[in-house]
Amino acid sequence: MAITEGAKKAHRASLRKRVFNVRRSRTLKDEVRETRDLITAGDVKGAQEKLPTAYKAIDKAAKRGIIKPNTASRKKSQLARAIAKKEGK
């Protein structure tokens, strides 16, 4: 448990920030999952339309430090590659 006033204040701030971080993380996971579901269902057109929102969620998560920049790049690349693979079939 925090002892000093500064530590108590930092803990309160971290609890407030956690709410936003959890929300951003949940949005990221939901958007990526929905896009992947569309890809596996074979709905390439729908997946392409969903891709910008997934990119937006990934970029925002990386900007806030929820995920690392290389992880964000990898996720975006994997989504784009999966869509391209389905288009090729």
How large a portion of the residues is in β-strands, by DSSP E? under 5%
User: From the coordinates shown, what is the CATH architecture?
Assistant: Up-down Bundle
Low-confidence stretches: none
Q: Give the helix proportion (percent range).
A: over 70%
For the record, the count of structural domains works out to 1
| Distance between the first and last residues' Cα | 57 Å
Give the total of beta strands.
Answer: 0
Q: Which oligomeric state applies?
A: single chain
The pLDDT mean sits at 94
- Shape category: elongated
Mind telling me the CATH class? Mainly Alpha
Order of helices and strands: HHH
Structural class: mainly alpha
Largest sheet: none
Looking at the structure, the CATH topology is Methane Monooxygenase Hydroxylase, Chain G, domain 1
* Tally of contiguous helical segments: 3
The CATH superfamily label reads Ribosomal protein S20
Radius of gyration: 17 Å
